[in-house]
Automatic annotation (TrEMBL):
GO molecular function: glutamine synthetase activity
InterPro entries xrefs: Gln-synt_C (IPR040577), Gln_synt_N (IPR008147), Gln_synth/guanido_kin_cat_dom (IPR014746), Gln_synth_cat_dom (IPR008146), Gln_synth_gly_rich_site (IPR027303), GS_Type-3 (IPR052725), GSIII_N (IPR022147)
Superkingdom field: Bacteria
Protein's name in the database: Glutamine synthetase type III
Lineage: Bacteria, Bacillati, Bacillota, Clostridia, Eubacteriales
Pfam families tied to this protein: Gln-synt_C, Gln-synt_C-ter, GSIII_N
UniProt GO BP: glutamine biosynthetic process
Annotated GS beta-grasp domain residues: 62-151
Family: Belongs to the glutamine synthetase family.
SMART domains (alphabetical): Gln-synt_C (SM01230)
Length: 695
């Protein structure tokens, strides 16, 4: 590999490149768009476009694409070449300002939740200048937002940008009250840790379930799983290590600051983490990370599984969404050294706690997906109950605040917001609570519920918006207050008292937490379908409309798409289960059991009084399970047909969860039991043991 510093960002049309290549004045004007969100004038766009094209062509690009994030949670790209016929049989390479700024993909096939039906059929893409363009596989990628002609967001980027704007505006108001008149923008930052599995490609291709659904629909547990804890941080296998080197190089070229790589808890499970950036760029980058993981693995004859639960009984994969707010000078969730900074820190900390307390169902919703239903609450990932871990020292301080330490001067423990010095919170690994869904980790919050395949856009839209809401309330009151310090003390104390219940430092996996949480009145939304159902509650619609993040129509569209996605995913899984059981498992079982039966007659024909009770026992056992599986298969087929007919999308999604999904499980059980009885040579696909250990 070439020198890392030389390859880093080579394929990115970064600010540095722009500074070098653009005329000074153009760069200055573009910079105002980037930093302050000012509109871009056509003449600036024209110069930027042609400079960008020249740069991209030098990097080997022949095409450009408006790269966008439709509501599927995946990314979309349509490539157009730069060629422009000259009229005499030759071509020039051209790329205009208009082509840079706006595109009109024929987008009728993207999910729109009914949004476009009433408006223009086509959508348009608009350049998001805040996320840099890059060259990949001979194409210039331009990050864009995707909207309908009447302005509805049809993507995952637009509302994210709106939410960033919302939280920035409110945070700036708070900073102003603390005397910072300079800061014009506060940025929400994210560092997403990405978990994934790597297995052998040849083996994975022999499994239809992996091919169609990304997870195993059948499979008995291998003799060895993760019980020895020997995989976590263990030494990397050569094939995996080679793959990771290649992965890093690809990511670095794209300017993605891939920082950490290691083995995870489950066999064949790994993690990568980048250095954090703005939520917008982090979201774009995470999509690229997922894409690159799959492609580079393929090049190495490996298969990368991004699914939340590729293997039943083995740890699943998540995405830890490390989130904070910062100015160009400081991280607002970093405890300060001066009392003044501490008061400001406490303000943002308590605002986040209150936001999470007040809007826990929305956060839960933001982690809802069919794949994630296997994780949340399943004794490995955080439970479906939202709670906050603060660590001992902070919990102690919050406790004192709750008990009136800020406002009642008679109390012995009286804390003065402007005077109290807070300790520096050690980012000590031992002080980590791994079971909390929302943990303070020294200078940021780590939201651990997000699923490994999910776009991180949704969770960050919610985080930014709910924190903006609490900050707005605070700023509204404080701006009118006569005495800033005492009002702030009172507000913080009230927020702590109202939301103290959400703070929990214990073991989130302990079954007793479920009862305790119920006593505390914390919501426990167990399944995705139930979480999706709350999306359009009037109070949430009002919240989104207040900050211009979603209109009511956009909320309803998104809700419908989530239900639809849920239903379609389970539908595919059910169809795949039926096919695999019918065409692979049951025939293989018949073949094996016939061979055992045949062997009984064969043995008897040689030794008439031979003891064949053991063989008979196997035949009986297998035959019973075969009958059970056949019955379960019939039930699944019947249930599926019935559920496919349901018209209302929410009802249908629920029926997929509570009927079809359950019927799939009922089919899986006897099939997995059969796998343990049938000789390996007869079994139609590679076992869990093969998939997890043969890399
Ligand atoms: P861990 O022990 O959980 O891996 P790290 O300190 O390595 O903790 O951080 C994990 C992730 O959090 C990284 O992606 C890191 O860049 C990110 N992170 C650190 N500071 C911030 C911040 N201020 N805002 C958002 N993410 C951050
Ligand atoms: Mg972490």
């Amino acid at each position: 590999m070439e020198n890392l510093t030389q390859i880093f960002g080579t394929n990115v049309f970064s600010e540095e490149v722009m500074k070098q290549r653009l005329p000074k004045d153009t760069f200055k004007r573009l910079k105002r768009t980037l930093d302050l969100g000012e509109g871009l004038s056509p003449d600036v766009a024209e110069v930027v476009a042609s400079t960008m094209k020249d740069w991209a062509v030098e990097k080997g690009a022949t095409h450009y694409t408006h790269w966008f994030h439709p509501m599927t949670g995946k990314t979309a790209e349509k490539h157009d070449s730069f060629i422009e016929p000259t009229g005499d049989g030759r071509v020039n390479l051209e790329f205009s300002g208009k082509q840079l700024i706006q595109g009109e993909p024929d987008a009728s096939s993207f999910p729109n939740g009914g949004l476009r039906a009433t408006f223009e059929a086509r959508g348009y893409t608009a350049w998001d200048a805040t996320s840099p363009a890059f060259v990949k596989d001979g194409t210039l990628y331009i990050p864009t937002a995707f909207c309908s002609y009447s302005g509805e967001a049809l993507d995952k980027k637009t509302p994210l940008l709106r939410s960033m704007q919302a939280v920035s505006e409110q945070a700036v108001r708070i900073l102003k009250l603390f005397g910072d008149k300079e800061t014009k923008k506060v940025t929400s930052t994210v560092g997403p840790e990405q978990e994934y599995f790597i297995i052998d490609k040849t083996l994975s291709q022999q499994r239809k379930d992996l091919m169609f659904t990304g997870r195993t629909l059948f499979g008995a547990l291998p003799p060895k799983g993760q019980e020895l804890d020997d995989h976590y941080f263990g030494s990397l296998k050569d094939r995996v290590s080679d793959f990771m080197k290649d992965l890093d190089e690809e990511l670095w070229k794209l300017g993605i600051s891939s920082k950490t790589k290691h083995n995870e808890v489950a066999p064949a499970q790994h993690e990568m983490a980048p250095i954090f950036s703005t939520t917008n760029i982090a979201t774009d980058h995470n999509q690229l990370v997922m894409d690159t993981l799959v492609k580079v693995a393929n090049r190495h004859d490996l298969t990368c599984l991004l699914h939340e639960k590729p293997f039943a009984g083995i740890n699943g994969s998540g995405k830890h969404n490390n989130w904070s707010l910062g100015t160009d000078k400081m991280n607002l969730l970093e405890p300060g050294v001066t009392p003044h900074e501490n008061a400001q820190f406490l303000t943002f900390l308590v605002a986040t706690i209150a936001a999470v307390g007040k809007y826990a169902p929305l956060l839960r919703l933001s982690a809802a997906s069919p794949g994630n239903d296997h994780r949340l609450g399943a004794n490995e990932a955080p439970p479906a109950i939202i709670s906050i871990f603060l660590g001992e020292q902070l919990t102690d301080i919050i406790n004192q605040i709750k008990n009136g330490a800020l406002t009642s001067s008679t109390k012995q423990t009286h804390m003065d917001l402007g005077v109290t010095t807070l300790p520096k919170f050690p980012k000590d690994v031992t002080d980590r609570n791994r079971t909390s869904p929302f943990a303070f980790t020294g200078n940021k919050f780590e939201f651990r519920m997000v699923g490994s395949t999910m776009s991180i856009s949704g969770p960050n839209i919610i985080l930014n918006t709910i924190v903006a809401d609490i900050l707005k309330d605070m700023a509204d009151k404080l701006e009118k207050a006569e005495d800033f310090k005492s009002s702030l003390s009172k507000i913080i104390e009230e927020l702590v008292q109202e939301n103290f219940n959400v703070i929990f430092d214990g073991d989130g996996y302990d079954p007793s937490w479920v009862d305790e949480a119920e006593k505390r009145g914390l919501p426990n939304i167990k399944t995705s379908v139930e979480a999706i159902e709350i999306f359009n509650k009037p109070e949430y619609v009002a919240l989104f409309e207040k900050f211009g993040v979603f209109t009511k129509g956009e909320v309803c569209a998104r809700q419908e798409i989530m239900f639809e996605e849920y239903a379609k995913t389970i539908n595919i899984e059910a169809l795949a289960s039926i096919q695999i059981a019918k065409k692979e498992i049951l025939p293989a079982v018949l073949e094996y059991v016939s061979s055992v039966a045949e062997s009984i007659t064969n043995i008897k024909s040689v030794v008439s009084d031979a003891d064949v009770s053991a063989q008979i026992d196997i035949v009986v056992k297998i035959n019973n399970l075969y009958a059970e599986a056949s019955k379960a298969l019939a039930v699944l087929e019947k249930d599926l047909k019935k559920v496919q007919e349901i018209k209302e999308v929410g009802e249908q999604a629920k029926a997929y969860k509570f009927e079809v999904f359950e019927a799939m499980q009922a089919l899986r059980e006897p099939c997995d039991a059969l796998e343990e009885l049938v000789a390996e040579d007869f079994w139609p696909y590679p076992s869990y043991g093969d998939l997890l250990f043969r890399v």
